Amino acid sequence: MTHIIIQGLLLSGLYALIAVGFTMIFSVGRVLNLAYGVYIMLGGYIYFQCVQVWHLPKAVGFVMAVAAGVAFAVATYQLLVRRLENNPVAVEISTLILAVVMQALIVMIYGAASRTMWPLVNGVWRIEGVAVTYNILIATVASWFILGGLMWFVHKTHLGRAIMAVSMDRKGAMVSGIDPRRISLITWAISGGLGAIAGVFFATYTQLDPSMWVGPLIIAVAVVVIGGIGSIVGSLIVAHLIGFMETITTSLLAAELRGVFTMLLIIIVLIVTPKGLFGREEL
Amino acid sequence: MALLEISNLEAFYGKARSLHGVSLNIEPGKIVAIIGPNGAGKSTLLDSIMGITTTTGSVKFDGQEIRAQSPALNVKAGIGYAPERGNLFPFMGVKDNLLVGAYTSRDKIDENLRMVFDLFPVLEQRQTQETGTQSGGERQMVSLGRALMTSPKLLLVDEPTIGLAPKVCLDIAAALKKLNEETGLTIVITEQNVNFAMSLAQELHVLETGELRLSGTVDELQGEDYIKQAYFGA
Ligand SMILES: Nc1ncnc2c1ncn2[C@@H]1O[C@H](COP(=O)(O)OP(=O)(O)OP(=O)(O)O)[C@@H](O)[C@H]1O
Ligand SMILES: [Mg+2]
Q1: Which residue puts its alpha carbon closest to atom 31 of ligand 1?
Q2: Do residues A199 and A142 lie in contact, with contact meaning Cβ atoms separated by under 8 Å?
Q3: Candidates B47, B89, B99, partner chain A, best to mutate (most A CBs within 10 A)
Q4: Collapsing DSSP states into helix, strand and coil, what is residue B164?
Q5: B31 has which bridge partners?
Q6: Is residue A275 part of a domain?
Q7: How many domains does one find in chain B?
Q8: A240 lies in some domain
Q9: What's the pLDDT score for residue B234?
Q10: pTM summary value
Q11: N-to-C CA span, chain A
């Protein structure tokens, strides 16, 4: 029981971080960026390249991972999404294709086999008989800090409020002197950076694998669908719902089943409550 | 020199043309009303001044050509806009809505907030209320307030009285008048409510099916048979 609570909390913090970048793009642009998982994968592989291949300091690995996530997201927005802005389905199809292409690219460079990432920090902490690696503990605490910072940013800064404004009423934002396209670009950049950070944590928690963009993407989609648009707190709650569901499935049923329930939950929520549990608008 | 000079302005939604060669000058310090029935093109005209619609022709603000300029730059240049039904941010509080309006005018936040709260004291008491839960009148005040937070030289207001009780209309009219008199702010409103427009504006323009039909002062237009027939059923 204690085991489930601790593991669940830790996993959920990471899932919340994974989901938030995706949710932001969806709120501002009303499109599902199916290439979002690529930022997570890129974050993981770039960090691996810097730290485990080139033996650079971990901090450098982090910075490079974030830079790669931001650059890739900005390029995706400028070269692809911006041109398809009025057609969400086209954006969704082309970002999905992009993700598959990036997976092939990763296979070409690193091979199809999965690779193990060194933990960010070594060591294990025992509480109540439960072994918690420092690695996941650090990842979770860092996730909470980042999420807290993001909440502060969107509520207390001009730029953050402008992002919220565009997500709630595009014309209202325009007549307030905000350029929605610039805000979209900035949102994509932030999303790419957050995805890459989440990717480093996620890869040290699981492992590096050319198909590792899929699992986090499903979690992110689930959070948007189940949580609904425009509610950051709703996203956090749903991330915990999913985190706990997966922890329970893994420890009581079988590890292979853990993604299945998340996907079933997406379908059920779509049927029962199209706005999501905390949503403010129809999806 | 006119603050706003519109000449031969045409606006398009796809291939459909919603404004036909509109030409109009707005002198600084005035309150001007554009009146016309549903679908006349009032909102389209204000959107076009703002740079939101596709247009041809010319719009000069303060002597500068702004027709092809983005809405964001037009706000920065000094045009404030309270659009029809507000386009407020429904899940943000009153104060946050106002602060978004200050996006391009950050050095004047304190004085502009003070001005808005003095003009609409209700808003000062309701700073954290989400605008999605407010009454129509309160929302209209937030909308005007948000436009004022941009530190405008020209304020465009689209149908400020739509769906509001007479008492609230009077409050809004008083606020606009006060702004105009005390700060010299130039104001353009659109209205279907001709009485409201006449009580407030010094100059009126009648827009019908995308064309300007008549222009004149309140006294001039009051005698016009056209106005009597169309709006007062005489
Ligand atoms: N987004 C749009 N797409 C296509 N046509 C539009 C659009 N907006 C307005 N129109 C058309 O342009 C014309 C003018 O509309 P507009 O909204 O400017 O009128 P209005 O005078 O503001 O009317 P109301 O008093 O009802 O607000 C109408 O024929 C309308 O159908
Ligand atoms: Mg209108």
Answers
A1: B39
A2: no
A3: B89
A4: coil
A5: B187
A6: no
A7: 1
A8: no
A9: 47
A10: 0.92
A11: 36
What gap in Å lies between CA A18 and CA A153, rounded to an integer?
Answer: 18
Token readout for A247 is 């922890």
Asked whether residue A253 is assigned to any structural domain, the reply reads: no
The pLDDT score that the predictor gives to residue B50 is 97
Which residue's structure tokens are 């059920």?
A268
Q: What is the pLDDT of residue A278?
A: 65
Q: What is the dihedral of CA A252, A256, A17, A37, to 10 degrees?
A: -170
For residue A74, what pLDDT is reported? Answer: 97
Q: Is the minimum CB–CB distance between B92 and chain A shorter than 8 Å?
A: yes
Within a domain: B139: no
Q: How far is Cα B206 from Cα A169, in angstroms, rounded to an integer?
A: 30
Does residue A250 lie within any of the structural domains?
no
Q: Which of B90, B146, B147 sits opposite A168 (nearest CB)?
A: B90
Report the Cα–Cα distance between both ends of chain B, in Å, rounded.
38
Range of the domain at A185: 16-209
C-beta of residue B6 within 8 angstroms of C-beta of residue B22: yes
Among all chains, which residue has been given the structure tokens 């391009």? B104
Ranges of residues in chain A whose predicted pLDDT is under 50: 282-283
Residue B136 lies in a domain: no
CA of B73 to the centre of ligand 2 (A): 23
| Residue at B26: amino acid letter | I
Count of the separate structural domains present in chain A: 1
CB crowding A45-63: b at 16 or more within 10 Å, else e? bbbbbbbeeeeeeeeebbe
The rounded Cα B66 to chain-centroid distance in angstroms is 17
Residue B67 lies in a domain: yes
List, for residues B7-63, the tens digit of each pLDDT value: 999 999 999 999 999 999 999 999 999 999 999 999 999 999 999 999 999 999 999
* Contact call for A168 and B71, based on CB within 8 A: no
Instruction: Tell me the residue type at B129.
Output: Q
The pLDDT value recorded for residue A283 is 45
CATH number, position B62:
3.40.50.300
- Pairwise CB contact (< 8 Å): B81 & A175: yes
Q: Which parts of chain B are beta strand (E)?
A: 4-13, 16-26, 31-35, 54-61, 64-65, 79-82, 154-158, 186-191, 203-208, 211-217
> Where does B83-210 show beta strands of DSSP type E?
154-158, 186-191, 203-208
Range of the domain at B71: 1-78+155-168+186-234
Question: pLDDT tens across A79-124, in order?
Answer: 999 999 879 899 999 999 999 999 999 999 999 999 999 998 899 9
